[in-house]
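Why do we care about 3D structure at all? Because function follows from shape, and shape follows, mostly, from sequence. That is the central idea of this module. The next example makes it concrete: a single protein chain, its amino acid sequence, and then its structure expressed as C-alpha cells.
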Amino acid sequence: MTAASNIENDSQIGFPMTILADATPVETDRRPFSIRPLMFETFMCSMAMMAFVALAGPIARVIGLAPWQVGAAMTVAGAAWMVMARVWGAASDRRGRRPVILFGLAGFAISYFLLSLFIDLALRTAMVPVLAFAGLLIGRGVAGVFYAAVPATGAALVADHVPPEGRAAAMAGIGASSGAGMVIGPGAAGLLAPYGLNLPLYLTAALPVLALVILWRALPRIERHAPPKAEPLRLSDMRLRRPMTVAFIAMFSVAVAQVTVGFYALDRLHLDPPGAARAAGIALAAVGVALVLVQIALRKLNWPPARLIRIGGIVGAIGFGAVMLAASAPMLWACFAVAAAGMGWIFPSVSALAANSVEAHDQGAAAGTVAAAQGLGVILGPIAGTFVYGIDNGAPYALIAAMLLATAMWRERTCSDAGCGCG
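And the structure:
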C-alpha cells in the first residue's frame, strides 16, 4: 500500500490513512485518521498548564514561597520535558503511538491532579515552606516527565498518517489549538480565582482527563513498529541538524522575550510596576492571539517547511528587532504580535521538517529530538535573556532578531523542497 498523495479539506472527516513502506501494521482499523482529537487534547492541556502558570504567583505568596522557587519548579518541568521527549518518542517507534501517548497523558492527568491536591493542602494548612517547595518541585517534575510523551508522540502520529506536503498544515492546526489554550487558560483562571485558588486548580485538573477520554476513543488502533534490526536514530544524525537548531532558536527566542518584557516595560517605557505588568500581560496575550490566527491561515497554504521557516524567521526578526524602537505600550504590543506571527510559521514547520527528513520508523525519535531542543531553549532562554538584558535593555531583542535572521538565511541543498523540505 502506498502513501496517500493528497490531504482532505477541513470540512471532511480527517486525513486519509496511510501506511508507509517500512512500517509494520499489527492490526487494522478502518476509521480514518483525524487531526481534531490531537487538536482537542492540545487545547485542553495547554489551558491546564497556562492556568497553573497564571496561578503560580498568588499561590506562592499565600504559602510563603519566593519567586525564584516558583521559577525553579517551572525549570524542573522544562528539564524533564527536554530529557524525556526523545525517550518517549523512540519508545513510540518500537511500541506504537497509541499506547505511548495514552500512557503519557494518563500519567500527566494523575500527576496534575495529585499536584492540585498537594497545593490545596498547602493553602489550607500552615505547611512549612520548604516542604511546600519540595512538593511543588516533585509534582511539576513528574508532570513534565509524563507530558513529554504527548507532543512528541502526537507529532509522530501526524507524520505516520499525513503525507509530507501536508504535515506543516497539520502541525499548524495543533499549534493553533495550543495558542488558543495559552490565551484562554490564564483568563479562565483569573475569572475563577476570586472564588478561591483551589477551584481553578481542580477544574483545570479535569481537562487532561477529558482529553484522555477523547483520545482513547478517537485514536486509530493501527500501530507501526520499527523493524527489529533498525538502528536507533542518533542525536548527532546530520538529517536532524537543521530541525534541532531551528527548534532551539525559536523556543529560545520566545523564552527570552517572555522573561524580559516586564523589565523592558519598566526600564525603556518608564511605566510604574502595575502599568508594566499590564503592558507585559497584554503583549503576551497578543502573542497568543497572533499565533492562533497565523497558524489557522497557514493550514490553507501548501508550502514546503523550509520556505515557511525562511519567511517566519524574517518576520520574527523584524518584530523582535522593532521592539528596540518601541516608545509606548501599544507599539510594544504591535511588535510582539508581528514577532509571534513569524514564530507561528516556524513552530509547525520545524516539526514537519524533522518528519520529512527521516524514515517512517524514526518519526517518534525525530519528534522527540525536536521537542528536546525546544526544551533546551526554554531552560537557557531565561538565563541568557536576563544576562544580556543587564548589558543593555535592548540587547536581548537584538540577539534573538539576529538569530532568527540567520535561521531564515540558512539554506541546505541536500534534498528538494518538495521532499524533505531542507532546501
